[in-house]
Amino acid sequence: MQLSKALTWAFVTACISVTGTCGNAVFAADSDRDEINATIVRFKAGIDANPKNFRTRKGLGLAYLSANNVDGAMEQFKEAIKLKPDDIESYVGLARAQIRKGNYKEAGNTLKNGIKYQPNDPDAHYKLGQVLSRTSNNPDDAMNEFKTTIKLNANHAGAHRDLGMMFGLKGDYDSQIVEEKKANELKPDDADTLYYLGNALALKNDRKEALKALQRCVELDKKNVDAFRLLAGINAADGNYPVAIKYAESACTLEPDNKEAKVTLEKIKAAAKDHK
Predict the structure, then answer these.
(1) What is the pLDDT of residues 167-180, one digit of tens each?
(2) What does the alpha-carbon distance between residue 227 and residue 199 come to, in Å, rounded to a whole number?
(3) CA separation for the pair 122, 128 (Å, rounded)
(4) Which of 69, 84, 183, 188 fits as disulfide partner to 161, beta carbons 3.0 to 4.6 Å?
């Protein structure tokens, strides 16, 4: 039995999920650990020789972040700020460490304090926008920071991408598509941009372009479960059930305990059976 168009398209909307990105921890590969440890030793020696050099403190903070010593990084960035209160990089470093600890409110306050000294630093506004996208009850707070970033640096791909994501959260998919396309133009191989673009295009029922974006997304990010689910939903909506099932199975393989992935696969299999 052929499913109704409305019911089939429900597969797509059920698979759509827009999420923000901010401050993911990056762990050093084994091949880099020796170099990071050696860098830490050098910076420590520099601090012993001159404890009032803010650059050495900041460098040690960054090295500690690379080694995932978050508490050590926070201590060094705070010392760097005491020594040179107008150095925006130290505030950004401290905020990154606070984000890794899950202290988003503190990170936001840190960035606001730093921006007072250098209000024209686009990266500081961008990082603040990312923090606010997680902590503020008003999405306009984050959007204003992303817009400020773009005003200061029109070619900031991340700001265009995340501004687009915020437009999507507000349901303004036309504006989201504009921003995601700009981000994609600036940085073609950013998987998150392609995912957000595919989301928005799917919600506008532009399946052909959505498929292009999402297929490229999973080529770049082979572990994006949401992208595989959405690809499954779009293909199911177009009646391409064998392809849809493969995408849904990929999502389940990546995250066997993902209930949404399991439901997507079950619904598509049921629809494929009824379609025969």
Answers:
(1) 999 999 999 999 99
(2) 9
(3) 10
(4) 183
Let me know: does 256 contact 269? Beta carbons within 8 Å: no
- Summarised one tens digit per residue, pLDDT across range 48-69 is 999 999 999 999 999 999 999 9
Max Cα–Cα distance, the chain, nearest Å:
79
Instruction: Select from 178, 273, 260 the least CA-distant residue to 227.
Output: 260
Task: Compute the distance between CA of residue 9 and CA of residue 159 in angstroms, rounded to an integer.
Answer: 31
Cα–Cα distance, 150 to 153 (Å, whole number)? 5
* CB 161, CB 192: distance < 8 Å: yes
Q: Which of 247, 242, 251 is nearest to 275 (CA)?
A: 242
Give the CA-trace dihedral at 81, 112, 116, 183, to 10 degrees: 110
The two tokens of residue 265 are 């696969």
Residue matched to tokens 């505030």? 91
Total residues belonging to the chain: 276
Q: What does the DSSP 8-state code read for residue 154?
A: T
Query: Per the structure block, which two tokens stand in for 43?
Result: 């910076």
Residue 95 structure tokens: 């905020």
Tokens coding 151: 């005003």
What angle do helix axes 207-220 and 225-237 make, rounded to 10 degrees?
150
pTM for the whole structure? 0.79
DSSP secondary structure letter of residue 53: -
The rounded Cα 162 to chain-centroid distance in angstroms is: 8
175's CB contacts (< 8 A; 6+ apart) are 164, 167
Among residues 112, 44, 41, 30, which one has the least CA distance to residue 75? 44
Q: Rounded to whole angstroms, how far apart are CA atoms 236 and 242?
A: 9
As a whole number of angstroms, the distance between CA 96 and CA 128 comes to: 10
CB atoms within 10 A of CB 154: 12
